[in-house]
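Bug #2210: C-alpha cell dump truncated for Integral membrane transporter?
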Amino acid sequence: MTDVLRRGRASLAFSFLVQGVAFALLVTRIPAIQDRYGVSDALLPAFLAAVPILAGVGSVTTERLVKRVRPSRLLRWSQPVVLLALLGVGAGERMVELGVALAAFGLAVGVLDASMNMLGVSLQRSYGRSIMLSFHAAYSLGGILGASLAWAGAHWDLALWVSYLPVVAVLLPAVLVGSRWYVDDRGAAAGPEEKAGEEQAVAFKWLLPLCLVMTVAYIGDSTVSNWSAKYLQDVLGSSEQLATVPYNVYMVTTLLGRAIGDLGVRRFGAVSVVRGGALVAAGGFAVVAVAPGAWVGMLGFTLLGLGLCVLVPQTFAAAGRLFPGASDAAVARLNVFNYVGFLIGSPLVGALGDAWSYRGAMVVPMVLVLVTLVYARSFAPQPDRYGGGHERPRTADVGRGSNGL
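Reproduced locally. Full output below:
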C-alpha cells in the first residue's frame, strides 16, 4: 500500500466529512433560514425541493463532464462552491439572493456527490478491499459535527452568517490544500476487458436494481430526518426536548455501522451485508410502527441507523463492479436516485400520515426496504456486460479477501 493511496484516502475522507458538515448546517437551520428571508410555509417546500432537483441536474452533468475532466478536478472546485453557497445562504437578505445561493448549492452538491463517490470507487479498486463505507462514515461524522455547530448557533441566537462564516473560513482553505492529494487513477487498475468497455454506454437495465435500492435507502433516510421528531412527539407522546434525540441517535448509529461495515463486507461479502442491513432496517421500521412509547420508538430509530447505513455505500461500490470500465458514468447516473428518494420519502410519509395514520405510514418504507432483498444478488460479481457473457474474475468481489475490489 503506497503513501500516495493512503494520502488519497485521507484527503477524500476529509472531503466527505466537510460535505457532511455543510449539508447538516443547511438542513438543520431551515427554520432560521425561513425566518431570515420571510419564506412562507406554502413556498418553503418549493425551495426545499429545488435543491435535490438541481443536485440531480448537477449529477447528470457530471456524467458528461468526466469524459473530459477528471473527477478529482471536479471535486477540487465543486466543494469550495458548496461552502461559499452555504455562506451565501446565511449572508443574503432578499428572496432572490436565497434562490441564487440555493441553486448554486444544489448544482454544486450534485457534482460533489458524484465526483466524491467516483473517487471512492476508484480508490477501493486500487486498495483491493472494501473501504467505501469508511468514506460514508466520515460523512456521518461530519453530519454530527455540523448539527452540533448548528445547535450552538441556535442556542446562542447567532445570525446565520455569524454561524457559517467561521466554519467556511476554516474548511475552505483546508479542502483546497487537501485536494492536492486526491488520487484519480481511473482505468489504471482495470484489466483489458474493462479498458475495452470504457467507451461503451452504461446499460441501464443492469443498473436499474441498484437505482431502486438507492431510492429505497433515501426514502428511509428522509423518513427519519423529516419525521422522527414529529412522530415521537405527536404519536408517541414524548416531550419536545426528547423528540430531538432520535435523529441524533440515528446519526450516531449510522456512523458506528459505517465505521465497522467494511470489516463485515470483507468477512461475509457485500450480498450478506446488504441483506442483513435491509432486514435490520425493516425491523427498525416495524418497531417504530408498533412502539408503545418514546423509548421503544428510539430503539426503532437506532435499528434504522444500523440497517440503512450500509446500503448507499455498497450500492455505489456495486455500480463500480458492474461497469469497471465505465464506473464514473455509472456512479453519476446512480447518484441521481439519491435525490429521487429524498424527494419521494418525506411527501410520501406525510401524505400517508395525514390520510391514514403515521403508524401505518411507517409500514410503507418498511416494505420498500424489504424489496432490497430481491435485488441483493446485484451486489455480487456479475457476468461481463461488455461481451463474452462469462463471469468476471474474483477480483471484482469486494467481499472476499484481499483480492476484492
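Output looks complete on our side. The chain is about 75% helix and 0% strand. Marking as cannot-reproduce; reopen if the truncation happens again.
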